[in-house]
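Teaching assistant's notes for section 4

Start the section by putting this record on the projector. Ask students to predict, before seeing the second block, whether LysR family transcriptional regulator will look compact or extended. Collect guesses on the board.
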Amino acid sequence: MLNATWLETFTTLCETGHFTRAAEHLNMTQPGVSQHLRKLEQQVGQALISRQGKSFTPTPAGEAVFSLGLSRRAEEKRLRDDIETDDRDVGAIHIACSGSFAMLLYPTLLPWMRAAPDLSVHLAAAPQADILSGLLEGRFDLGVLGANPDHPRLEAQHLGREELCLLLPADASDTPVTFADLEARGFIAHPDGYGYADDLLRLNYPDDYPGADQLSVRGSVNQIGQIPAPVAKGVGYTLLPRSGVEAFADKASLRVVQLPKRRWHELWLVMRRGRRLSARVRYARDIIEDAAGQLR
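Reveal the predicted structure now:
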């Protein structure tokens, strides 16, 4: 790579067209300017100027190097402008969370996106392990995890917790729900559903629950927003965190069953430790905090 100091000296020399003026502009001596020119020519391997008495003109190689110098200067100016300008409505931000929380969060991000055309928001619904690795690799600015990762390169803020919910149709009987009642309806399965079943159903039906792989399955859906839909229409039951219930458009058609033993999932907002947060990341953090507040 060309020496940046020599390149800037040569660029200024071409702009001023005179060694003395270039030296004054750079607060150097004229022999210093000449020395930088010689060193740059040695690095390039070609003469960069053609002298005519006290004046000079750039050679073809000099024209190319001068063009590069102007380009480098413009790039550095853009970099300084980007660093000095911290506009919350400009730039990209990458957030990762569970699919259920993403359903709740995304609508709260849309007004900001609509008002800020130079903003680019990327929301990824991902498994916990992928969120953690993405934060460590710098692919995500913010992540919402179900536990404090307790990692030396990460810092975590407790947002609260959300209940794991057993969902039935709104017109289901208010009488206590037995495991046999659930089996008769059938489970609306989804990728996280089996883990939720082992978590909540085993806790409340220890004598009857046979394990997730033995459940009577009525259907399965892998689109998080559609999981409650069959239950709302009277087909089967399912298990979702509270955020998935709150984000469902027809939640009035669902009944959250109050089981004797309740289960909550923790919510932690996680980011890289020691990283200076841009204005847009700070604002996104506030939006995430507000979204989590809906679950209290």
